[in-house]
Amino acid sequence: MLWLYILLGIVLFFAIILAVPIEVCVQYKKQFFCRLRIGFVKIILYPPVPKKKKPKKKKKTEQPQKPAPKKEEKPNDNFLKELGLSGIVNLFTRITELAAGVLKDFFAHIIIKSFALSIKVGGKDAADTAINYGKVCSVVYPLTSAVISSMKYTHYGVDILPDFTKGAETKIEFFAIFKTRIAHLVKIVLKHGFKALKMLMELKNIKDN
């Protein structure tokens, strides 16, 4: 019975690990801020935390070393030339399909807990502001709609307003929290990792031959 308890303990351990939530908080308000949270552990990705400077040790006087002899550079193999046009097209097609599949599965398992984008559009004068406002709306609204529709979300809002004050600057504020689980990332790696590994092995065989 001991082996059964050990097996159940291992299964329970991995089940807990896979269920651990991963959360990314991104904010921009005059300065960019990004924080990663894995379970209860929080890691600030940006801005980087300043490291404490260690006192410099005095270097001993070293004798000048003779420069190492330069190695003869061998000409690189023209790998793309060996593939040919059809091979290059096939390679890029497979890479594109793989990337599209990875992104599709990745975004399908991302939950947007909060998404808020605020833009105040300015310009040299009222006419310039109106033109800029039209350009921003024509790009931002379709883009955010496409991104949001590819993921699950609980709350999001996009607010774009013109500022007709003469010489007003365009200001952007952004806040978002994205959430997923380790299990989803492992699933994506297992699903698409073998395809990527197979592609790399095929390319290596072509290069060796």
Automatic annotation (TrEMBL):
InterPro entries: DUF2953. Residues 51-77 are annotated as: Disordered. Residues 51-60 have a biased composition (Basic residues). It comes from the Bacteria. This is DUF2953 domain-containing protein.
